[in-house]
User: Fold this.
Amino acid sequence: MNQEIFDLEKEEIQQKIKKAANWFYWIAALSIINSILSFDTPSNIGFIAGLGICQVVDEVIIEMFGTYNHYATIINLIISLVIAFIGYQARKASKTAFIIGLNLYALDAILFFYFNLWLSFAFHISFLYFIYQGIPAINELKELEDGRSLNVQETQADNEIQQN
Assistant:
């Protein structure tokens, strides 16, 4: 495989990984917006793809203090930053980040299942599917790079034999 084809294939696979990892950024952003919406207008307006745990935090803070306050926003911001950080690591082709993020988002989906919020649960399942696409892409990237490494080693061995 020549270098140009290798580079094109590698770029295509890396784009698949980034596309899957970007869902973590969307989840984090929508969760922050949901938290802000809860602060400004205590209603049921929000994005169904946001984190359920942030909604639980909102409800617990309201229960504890009688009203929504900045504690919930700060806690939700921290949670969202963790998800964004997972997305950042996943964009760098970290299979561990994908696995951790998938598991956390699956646990979050269970909250919606438990509270019979089926539309939010369905969106979580679909987002899990899209995020999961990063793992086979990482495997594909590793195979491509391993194959390239093997070809380079074979070429070097052939060159050494020819020189002797």
